[in-house]
Write a structure and sequence with these properties.
262 residues; mainly beta; Immunoglobulin-like; 2 domains; 3 helices; 49% strand
Length: 262
């Protein structure tokens, strides 16, 4: 859960309000709050990992603003527009907050959050950032997939009775040469969900999930693993090591697990 702190800055980028006006009407959104995807064109500027590229979009009077919590306090200011305009005299920065990220394991962390005007959904727009080193960078960001509500993590945690379930697994990342069998089996016991992952290759010798290493559960044939599932319907980051290349190579993937409807 993200708790918003006091606003550290006021105002917003010079053209932000004008650009956002009318965007909600075009998207067919009524006044209210929505959970949205907030995706940047570079990994140096992205939403806190715990929030899975999600932010909270507020629609009011036809204007849209998205609040995003970042990774840390290393990005100190945001500007709506390019870096050249950000450095002009009188340029106004976007509102900044101090957000507390509660990781649910007893650990919390304070990070910077920002309120960013959104001109339109599904269309890239420019935001510029400056970090603690004093350098400006311009990035394209896209806001999409609005879902009514204000809880980024709603519906993503495992809340199932003990038993065996069939789940679909969607994989992103890698070269696309290897795939994962889907649907597959997920077993829930005492609140813990374990999923069987069967690769279309015999060359995977371990997987890493939440910094824990998992070895194959079979000795021959395509590589099979049993890994924990922490959430449904949201991308889950994993690493799989392949020996198919000239030397072992760890590859990052995102697995999205969804229940198969009976």
């Amino acid at each position: 859960m993200t708790t918003l702190g006091a606003l550290a800055l006021s105002g917003c980028g010079g053209s932000g309000d004008d650009a956002a006006s009318g965007g909600a009407e075009a998207a067919g959104l009524e006044d209210g709050t929505y959970v949205v995807d907030f995706v940047s064109d570079h990994n140096m500027f992205h939403v806190n990992d715990y929030n899975n590229d999600k932010g909270i979009l507020t629609v009011k009077g036809g204007e849209m603003t998205v609040h995003v919590s970042l990774q840390s306090k290393k990005i100190v200011n945001l500007f709506y527009g390019n870096k050249e305009d950000a450095q002009k005299e009188g340029a106004e920065m976007l509102p900044r907050t101090v957000d507390t990220i509660d990781y649910g394991d007893g650990y919390t962390e304070e990070v910077y959050g920002f309120d960013v005007p959104v001109p339109a959904l599904d269309e890239p727009f420019e935001v510029s950032i400056i970090g603690t080193h004093g350098n400006w960078y311009t990035h394209n960001v896209t806001v999409s997939n609005p879902v009514p509500g204000d809880d980024i993590h709603a519906g993503t945690e495992i809340d199932l009775e003990d038993g065996e379930y069939q789940v679909d697994v969607a994989k992103e990342g890698g070269t696309g040469r290897a795939d994962i069998d889907s649907p597959t089996t997920m077993t829930v016991k005492n609140g813990e969900a374990i999923m069987t992952v069967t690769w279309s290759s015999e060359n995977y010798d371990y997987m890493i999930v939440d910094e824990e290493k998992y070895e194959p559960v079979n000795e021959s044939g395509n590589s099979v693993f049993e890994i924990p599932v922490s959430k449904l319907n949201e991308p889950m980051k994993v690493i799989a090591d392949t020996t198919a290349m000239s030397e072992p190579h760890e590859i990052e993937y995102e697995l999205t697990v969804t229940l198969v409807e009976e």
